[in-house]
Design goal:
By secondary structure, the protein is mostly helical. Helix content is 78%, strand content 2%. Strand 1 and strand 2 form a beta hairpin.
């Protein structure tokens, strides 16, 4: 049954050589599934553990706010991270869509993303945070903090290479993991990785940050993240056996591939609506960096509270991934996306309404579960639209579309938080989520259903 569901695109009638190569490709995938499944599992478990510590709406926003004292700087940092992901997915796609093997590109793109995490950690240990005044001539005098400036720069670097590696690693998984196994793979690797991340987050808050371990508890946390993500990359490099696809696109120029964006979207109206849904949901992250700062303004924020809420967010991510993965394999990931958006809305309303530690804990659980469901659904659904040869560019289109809206969101959110307060930021987030939910219900079809009907 699985072999039929996961068969590659049907070869044109009469093309016996292409049909034979398609059959050989599929046989390679199934013959090496156990090894490639393990490699993807270890990479995702260890890599996503570390990336969760960096991307969770707790440690990095709280750290930036602690060393800058500014909501706008927090928003700027998250915006710079997203700016890096605007163009780099397209660049990554153009560098791999014509290649038979893409693992070498995955190693250097992934490696540079991990070096950015190490840079954030080292900046905290070795750069001063005292303000320095310098003159820009007619633009007047400016004040900068070396540590803040360096971390902002590394966040930009992190975004650039995370955007590029998203395309490469998504393509790798699509090449070696059959469609009927992707949900459960992501479920278990995210669940075990989330369990490690949740435990590490809790201990990091209590033992690293409160104790200011090694002179900077935040830097210690980010170094752990660097080693975990690097171990995942090494495991994938050692275990993965990559097949050569029967067909690939010819190498295209960067400018020409950008011009292909409208064609890819016009080819499938449901895919176009899905991309717009992604953009709206990503716009809702306008509030994400300010969840933890909002909590601090209501009940105070120490290492214990930071660790507890990180545990709630990442722990819910862990448990819910098992539900999302198996539900997606059984029904398709449109339903996962739908439930995630509903949960995201409910958790945001709860966070805005009740300001005791218990409901805040529950709200962070809801946010962790909802956003992990959104990420799994968005990253998996994109693999199921259209043809295999267009897959790298479809991933790039979605990643770029998300990054465009995610770039402005945190920056605008920081300015709104400074001027109008957190409730306005959260209200805007709820508006975007509601629009995304309506569009998903009205215009996005389950891509797996269409694929099965075409077989």
């Amino acid at each position: 049954m699985d072999a039929k569901v996961d068969a590659p695109d049907v070869a044109p009638a009469g093309d016996d050589d292409l049909a034979a190569r398609e059959a050989a490709y599929e046989k390679f995938v199934w013959d090496n599934l156990r090894r490639n499944y393990l490699g993807n599992y270890l990479h995702g478990m260890l890599g996503m553990t570390g990336f969760r510590l960096v991307n969770a709406p707790t440690f990095l926003p709280a750290y930036l706010f602690a060393i800058s004292g500014s909501n706008a700087i927090v928003g700027l940092g998250l915006a710079l991270q997203q700016v890096g992901g605007v163009i780099s997915p397209i660049f990554g796609a153009t560098k791999i869509e014509h290649r038979k093997k893409v693992m070498p590109a995955a190693i250097w793109m992934g490696g540079l993303a991990r070096m950015a995490i190490l840079g954030i950690a080292l900046a905290g240990w070795f750069l001063p945070n005292d303000p320095i005044r310098f003159s820009l001539g007619v633009l007047g005098d400016w004040i900068a903090r070396p540590r803040v400036a360096a971390i902002l720069g590394f966040m930009l670097m992190f975004g650039i290479f995370m955007g590029a590696q998203r395309v490469v690693f998504s393509l790798l998984m699509a090449k070696v993991i059959p469609i009927s196994r992707r949900g459960r793979l992501q479920a278990w690797r995210n669940a075990t990785g989330g369990l490690i991340a949740a435990a590490l987050a809790y201990f990091a808050g209590r033992w690293f940050i409160d104790a200011n371990l090694f002179g900077n508890g935040y830097s210690t946390t980010f170094v752990f993240a660097f080693f975990l993500t690097s171990a995942g990359l090494w495991a994938l490099q050692f275990l993965l056996k990559e097949p050569e696809p029967p067909t690939t696109r010819e190498q295209g120029r960067f400018r020409d591939r950008i011009h292909d964006f409208p064609r890819l979207i016009r080819q499938d109206k449901s895919y176009g609506a899905f991309v717009l849904t992604q953009m709206l949901a990503t716009s809702a992250r306008i509030a994400t960096p300010f969840y933890i700062i909002f909590v601090g303004s209501k009940i105070g924020l120490d290492g214990k509270t930071l660790g507890l809420l990180s545990l709630a967010y990442l722990g819910a991510d862990t448990v819910s991934n098992l539900v999302w993965g198996y539900l997606g394999d059984k029904t398709g990931f449109r339903l996962v996306l739908l439930v995630s958006l509903l949960g995201w809305i409910g958790a945001t309303v709860l966070l805005m309404s009740l300001h005791d530690i218990l409901p805040i804990f529950v709200a962070f659980c809801g946010l962790g579960a909802a956003q992990s469901g959104y990420m799994m659904a968005a990253q998996t659904m994109i693999l199921e639209f259209g043809s295999r040869d267009e897959l790298p560019m479809r991933i790039a289109v979605s990643a770029t579309a998300e990054s465009i809206t995610a770039t402005a969101g945190p920056l605008v959110g920081g300015l709104l938080a400074e001027a109008l307060g957190y409730n306005v930021v959260f209200g805007a987030s709820l508006g975007f989520l509601t629009l995304a939910l309506v569009l998903l219900l009205v215009a996005v079809k389950e891509p797996r259903t269409a694929r099965l009907q075409a077989l």
